[in-house]
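Deadline looming. Please check this record:
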Amino acid sequence: MDALKTMWDTVPPAAPEDLAGARRRLMDGMHARRRVVTAPRMLVAAGVAAVAAITPLIVGTGTPAFAVTKSSDGTIRVTVNELRDPAGLEAELGEAGIKADVTFLAPRMRCDGPRFAGVDGAYDGPAVNSPDELRSTVEKSRTFKATRTLSVKEIAIFPAYIKPDETLVLEFRDNQNAEVPWQLGAFLAQAGAPVKPCTPIEGNK
């Protein structure tokens, strides 16, 4: 919670040009909070999450870069071991019924934006007056409900929250941390709306 509070302290009061960045930081913080609850450090240390302890994420480990599995209830689980072959991950998600745009980013980089028209206020909504209002907007969004972090290398995707022809935009950033290898920004783009290619720029907005 201290990390989340610190993040909120950095959100500008109502600067439109920084709003998408504030939402991204808030989403990252919420996903990080989920990660702490579902994958405690104690379990990671015990090897339950199968983290390659001292091997940097972007270096080959001999294991598949990613895996996509679909459960009987329709939930899709994505395991990301290495940040490589985003097009391959997009293709596998497509086979599982998810239209996706996947980007892997180097440390301290982000995608310049806006890249697309979001389905709700989680990405490009109107200006808000306070961090609490921003938090409420994000938590109520379908974007926030469509994905969930399961462990340090796994996310779950819930197709029930994704309407036909909407694009799930996934931006993974190398975290240079063996225990928490990457950070994820996950958003929904409007049905039929184009998603611009990611132009990586330095910064955490």
Summary: Residues 1-18, 31-60 have pLDDT under 50 and may be disordered. Strands lie at 66-70, 76-80, 100-105, 109-111, 147-149, 154-157, 167-174, 182-189, 200-202. The helical segments are 2-9, 19-38, 41-46, 86-95, 121-124, 131-139, 142-146. The longest strand covers residues 167-174.
